[in-house]
Amino acid sequence: MHQHSPIATRDPAPLLEQTLQEWGQDGDLWLFGYASLIWRPDFEFVERRLAMVHGWHRALKMWSRVNRGTPQCPGLVFGLLPGGSCRGMVFRIERAAALAMFPALWQREMVLGVYDPRWLACRTAQGPVRALAFTLPRNSPSHTGVLSEAQYRQIFQQARGIYGSTHDYAHTTYQELLRLGIQDRALGRLLQLAHPAQSARQDQPT
Fold this sequence. Notes:
Elements: H1 12-23, E1 29-33, H2 36-39, E2 47-64, E3 75-93, H3 95-109, E4 116-123, E5 129-135, H4 149-158, E6 160-161, E7 164-165, H5 166-179, H6 185-194
Antiparallel strand pairs: 1-3, 2-3, 2-4, 4-5, 6-7
């Protein structure tokens, strides 16, 4: 199905220490979610807001060989790639809870050290916040590069990992974005590839 190459991984521990130092640990933590963090945060938060990030965009262009696929049939998950803009959600986590939550967050997002943790400026209706986000470098071996419609269609039909299929993951994200009033037209077009006959009945926000 695809050309496979081993994924280069980094030790996530130094990245955790660096991220904690950059946070400063002297106030509450803000975390930017752009995909599954929105609909499955797995942590306690005291506030959440719709947010806009400029200079980055959500893209279904990150290989997943465990969670949403296998080494033999890789699936896809979202990454935050350079360029454009992204609407998502920021979560405010109290300082003490954030310190206790970091190991589990790192296990979820950084077990392979694939993402680059970054502190991004996020615009919200209540004012700007500085939030931690997990971004994907374009030169990462986990970045798919350009995929054809046929490749996306095949992945949606076949790729499944320990947490379910790529298609279900993408569809759940799309539906949650719609519920929040966020239109991701690029994702909507991709999902139509899995069910072309349903393209005319795609859900639209009200």
